[in-house]
What does this fold into?
Amino acid sequence: MGVLALLVAVGIVVAASGRLHRLSEATVTALGSLIARHPAWGVLAFVGLAALSAMLAFFSSVVIVPVAVHHWGPAITALLLWIGWLGGGVGGYTIGRYLGRPAVQRLVSTTRIQYFEEQITARAPFLVVFLFQLALQSEIPAYVMGMVRYPLLRYLLALSAAELPIAVAAVILGSGFLNRQYGLMVGVGLAAIGLVSLAIRALHRRLSHAQEGSFESPSATSAESPAKP
It folds into this structure.
């Protein structure tokens, strides 16, 4: 959630600065021209970067959304972004399930996933997994759900539902950035932050009130949540 707020704030600052916005427009135009010359590679690169951002904490695909919106338009960009995030989620799940902790700890701090690995098991209700993905908006849920061997199809459904509204919000923010629509950026940013905040609270409540022996250790009382658009 903090990362999302930071990205929105940086986007507004850049859009409000004439010089920075002109520089960003020139960059967007140049990259758009490159995609136009190599359309297939452009799609693969965008989807691949989106997938990578769903697996690694240090990269956010939101920063390349304006380029995609400028070239493909909002609808196609949202679809490609969503597909990329789904691919990254499945990739993280696969790493967690088949390569396990040794591989996961090379990609993300194990202390960040230990809490949820102890709380959520393969028997977790679908709603909990959906809230888990929506609340964190990071690579952590994919690794955790793979490590606990949660059913892949059910995880994919939860992932799809959780990432769709965030993908739409990211595209609206990207369009707002290109058109310097500050009110739209603030409104959508606050709505996205509010949605993630509600998911965090709901997840915390579900974990705190879970019955012993289901998917939670009864001593858990808090859930810290990093975020990634």
Notes: Residues 18 and 24 are 10 Å apart (CA to CA). Confidence is low (pLDDT under 50) at residues 211-229. Residues 2-208 form one domain. The chain has one domain: 2-208.
